[in-house]
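new request in #modeling-help
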Amino acid sequence: MEFEAVMIPSSSMPLRFTDKCIACGRCVEACQVDVLMLSEGEKHPVVMYPGECWYCGACVMECPVEGAVLFRHPLMNQTKFVPVRRKQ
Amino acid sequence: MKRWPYANEMNEISTDEADVLVLGGGVAGCFAAIAAAERGRSVILVEKGSVIHSGAAGTGVDHWESACTNPLSKVTPKEIAEAYMDEQDHYSNGIAHYIECREGYDRLLDLERFGAKIRDTDDEFKGTAFRDDETKLMFAYDYENRFTLRVWGTTFKPALLKELKRLGVKIYERTEATSLLTRETFSGRRGIGAVGMNVRTGRIHIFKARETVLAMSRPARIWLFHPDLTGLSEFRPTQCIGSGHAMGFRAGVAFTMMEKSVRGEFSAAGRSFPPYSTGNNHNTWYAATMVDARGVEIPYLDRDGNVLKTVEERYYPAKGQKFFLKGGVIDEPKYEYRGPETMSFDELMKRGYQLPFYADLSSMPEMERKVIWGMMVGQEGKTKIPVYEDLTRRGFDPERHMLQSYGTGWQSASFLAQERQLFGAPGGIITGWDLKTNIDGIYACGDQLYAMDCAGAACATGYYAGRKAAAASMEISLSEADMDAVHAEIRRLYAPLEKEEGMDWRELNMAVAKLMQNYCGGVKCDDLLQEGLDLLKHYRESAVPELSCRNPHELMRAHEVLDIMDVSEMILHACLFRKSSSVPLCFERSDHPEKDPEKDRCYITVYKDDDEVRAGRIPLDYAGDLEEMYEKNNPGERSAG
């Protein structure tokens, strides 16, 4: 049988690749959940299974080019911070 | 639809053999493989992901617990291991804890030798109370007794991978272990290897081995599952769901404390936030200053309820107390071991403190602030990119901002009682002093073991199991796999590929999670548990054959759900077997409400005997005097520390 590559969408996209990406594939090999795929001739990997990402950042840790892959949490998980408030 | 970028190797079978087979490439499995390879044995390591960042400690670890033989420690392995046991009323893995306390520091030195960073070689924290300026080792929590270290764990997995390669360990990545191979001998069942499948190509692997080490962590996605953000369902890696427990259970391995589960603490897909990304004062963030919405500081109290006046006091035992236990799974320990902690939420509410709370590092001494934000947050798993860099990029500055706290405690959320997890120190495989299971030829280490936790313990037990397996492998011959069993396994594994337009694996995972919430929730009883087993049987018969996958990746996920079902079945049986409630086991029964009656103060084991599921009973002190028994079982073992 033929294997079909089907992207499974999710409500949130954890990664975005920029023009700086050199398609070296290190992020694909670093991802232990195997959510990334890089096909021959493509400019950058595709996030095939964004919902399965566990947001560990290993892809960014292994990427040799700063700014090539951008990481973000789903909006609901972006913790709030405020200026320091002090009452004695 | 794209072309599948990997080779199609369906129905191709490779065979390989080794003296020692290690299943699972997290820190425990890596150390098991290294121990066996150091002793000249041929080793195969099987990892579903990729070793460089796989497992719970894949992207880092910041605290290395209970390394009692480090040169600055004022406590002995015996003292701390016995404290862990006492703290949990003996529902704790004394063997694993003693190994952790006794050999943990040696493993840290190994990591340094492999190229990892374990001490403040860059002199960033010179002169601080938590650093020893001579050795440059840094300590967390208890600065007096110095038995838990602060470490640069982002360097650990890459260093372990380098060492594995250097030692010539054969590493099979993107390969899921799917089942254990066994044969019946004159003296009982014996493990002879395992079957695996490449999760990109579908190739089948037969691994023949003299000894097998299980290092596949612990179950997840049993009660908690989010069908959209599946990767955030639980605290641990997406695909780390207890395959080791499932295949062990199917092969007849004995487990204990599987009836223990806790109310959910972490599900970033659900009610909580990514771990360590919120204001809190636990583990990595100990002992951050916390304030309420008005900016009023939340008091830290000693174990007697006295308010601590300085930040420094948060890191020292109370008067008359030798040491305190903190970190990892220690939550509200007994008085004897209790360290400083912020006032309880209920008490704060009574006194008019206003939500939300915040972690306010700005007023802390500079070095205490810097060691939390930038070292601990940064080196702990899933913090370098997801917390430190992410928040910094969004503009967070710990000198000017406070980070919001959510929910009522450090977990950052409030879950329902039916939303449960195997978090903390849950059940698992029960072994003897050689970390061998009840099945000859099969060992276990790391979080596959019952009632233990944390990276130091995983590394220590991993190495120990590898050492024991290596020694045992000298006397054993390789066995041929039963090809009927192998072909039955291949049929089981490939079945969803044969089915067109059937059920998505997420639908089944969701149904099982809801089943467990309904039938194995906060309060259990026989009738509910039996209905749960009945429904699970129905899902096996009617839903499993409907599973449909289009490629090996989806197949890997479908296999995970099959394993989740096996673990769920084991848990339901374990709950049925304990006919009383238990406080240390967080186990509440409406039909047997009596808490911890003397007759049930023991380990209840659960194991499969062909098609029957049986229970056994083992005394809580079966491991004996921990120090004596360690010495007896490991003559001549000396710590480097």
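bot summary: The beta strands of chain A are 4-5, 15-17, 36-37, 46-47, 69-71, 81-83.
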